[in-house]
Amino acid sequence: MNHVTAGHIALEQVSALDPPAIRVSGLSHAIGGRKVLDQIDLTVPSGRFTVLLGQNGAGKTTLFSLISRLYAAQSGRIEVAGQDIARHPAAALAQMGIIFQQRALDLELTAAQNLSYHAALHGISWRETRRRIAEELMRVGLLSEAGRRARSFSGGEMRRLEIARALLHRPRLLLCDEATVGLDIRSRTDILADVRNLVEERGISVLWATHLIDEVHPEDLTIILHRGQIRRVGEASSIVAEMGAATLQEAFRKLTEAS
Amino acid sequence: MTALGWLRCFQGIVWREALRFVHQRSRFISALVRPLIWLFVFAAGFRATLGIAIIPPYDTYILYDEYIVPGLIAMIQLFNGMQSSLSMVYDREMGSMRVLLTSPLPRWFLLICKLSAGAILSLPQIYVFLLIARLYGIELPPWGYLAVIPALLLSGLMLGALGLLLSSVIRQLENFAGVMNFVIFPMFFASSALYPLWKVEEGSPLLRDICAANPFTYAVESIRFLLYCKVDPMSLLLVSGSLIIFMALAIIAYDPSKGMLARIRGGG
């Protein structure tokens, strides 16, 4: 538990100037009587790429659902860019773009129509919507496909479209829940690189949930979640060193097998 | 967010539902075929055997197929409301409901937009049905076609709110067959859609009481009266009351802090 607290403090120091992108304290949640998250404390600093690493069933999707207020936490507190999600959900949700694990496109609509719907949900004017759709589709290389129905897109194209959609309302935080699941290696690499670029390009914060260790870079701030509890927080390379492991995979195994 | 932002959100949700409606032509056709079969087959058969006494809002004797029209209009809305419920469950299964629910606008407003979209989109279906009925020979007062709009919107919202409430408790698409058996059929048959309540009472006073307790009866009656440019305040009041109750329950069911959705779909 001590090392979690130490990691918590270290991350807070990184983000001393800005409010953290996400601050979670004392978060617990149970579904059907089973505790899915247990006393989670974590801080995701502003303007960095942070990885939430955990096996399937670790509680990543539940944590994302609570951060995005799909449902409310049973106990604990979540702040997004300094806004308490329970007390000021509108302000908090306006700051965040979300890529869900399960694809959330309307397959009957075209790429542009999917984006336009999202813009409407954020109250963006028609004129501004048209401008931003062109800009974001161009950024992800799908401008020429704007009029194509989402149903005909490949898995990689759908994910790129979802990235464009998530950025349409200019969020300061991007939540990506297993965004590369089900994609081929090339699409996985492209999407991960694109999201990493966003941190540099736009200065936004990214929380990237994954169970794929090869997606983690040594310098990434990494939060290891296992069975609803945080096992370690810190840069991936530090975690490897602290655990006396040769690789992150080995460190991860030691941390998760310890239970 | 400004008032224009809220309006843009409302437009966007209605526009999205309209696009889905246009893309799903079979849904439009099936919504139309169902009441037409009742009109052309069922009502035509009963026309000779069932006489309707002079009861408000009618000023004279009418044929059975004229009597049944308001009930069939409400049937279109009932199926639309349940279809909307089905689409909410589908959206939840497919994940696209998350896009709606993570909008920064309040959830009650998003649900009202969704309901309004459903009620508005049922209007073209109803007017195409009324046009075919007119060509078939059912003449209604010309102003009735306009006067009925408030009743159509009100009953459309009420039945949509019921669908929304059901969508919050239906765990999977497969459970939708239960909605057909336990909601749509009882609501439609145990109402004044097919027979006037005095006629039902002749057969079974208990069934008459059940029909009188069914909000769908009042949706049918509010439509029936306004189609003849008359107002039945009690029906309008009861439809409005049912709308408020169903809407309030649906908003509670979709409230993140109530956790009903969390119980339906857990995380991983």
The average pLDDT score of chain B comes to 85
| Protein structure class of chain B | mainly alpha
Report, as a whole number of angstroms, the end-to-end distance of chain A. 13 Å
**Which ranges of chain A are low-confidence, i.e. pLDDT below 50, for 5 or more consecutive residues?**
1-15
DSSP helical segment count of chain B = 14
Q: How do the helices and strands follow one another from N- to C-terminus of chain B? A: HHHHHHHHHHHHHH
Largest sheet of chain A: 6 strands, mixed
Please report the two chains with the greatest interface, counting residues with C-beta closer than 8 angstroms to the partner's C-beta.
A-B, 50 and 38 residues
What is the number of beta strands of chain B?
Answer: 0
Order of helices and strands of chain A: HEEEHEEHEHHHEHEEEHH
Q: Return the domain count of chain A.
A: 1
Shape assignment of chain B: globular
Backbone shape of chain A: globular
Radius of gyration of chain B, taken over Cα atoms and rounded to an integer in Å:
19 Å
CATH topology of chain A: the name is Rossmann fold
Give me the secondary-structure category of chain A.
alpha/beta
pLDDT < 50 stretches of chain B: 264-268
How would you describe the overall organization of this protein?
- The complex is a heterodimer of chains A (259) and B (268).
- Chain A is built from nine helices and ten strands.
- Chain A is α/β, with parallel strands linked by helices.
- Chain A has one domain (2-106, 173-257): Rossmann fold, CATH 3.40.50.
- In chain A, a hairpin with a 2-residue loop joins β1 (22-31) and β2.
- In chain A, α5 (126-139) packs across α6 and α8 crosses α9.
- The longest helix of chain A is centred in the last third of the chain and has 18 residues, at 185-202.
- The radius of gyration of chain A is 18 Å and the shape is globular.
- The two termini of chain A are 13 Å apart.
- Chain B is mostly helical and 268 residues long.
- Chain B has one domain.
- In chain B, 76% of the residues lie in helices and 0% in strands.
- Chain B has 14 helices and no strands.
- Chain B has helices at 3-23, 25-47, 64-67, 69-94, 97-101, 107-136, 144-147, 149-169, 176-189, 197-203, 205-212, 215-227, 233-254, 260-264.
- The relative contact order of chain B is 0.13.
- Mean pLDDT of chain B is 85; it is low at 264-268.
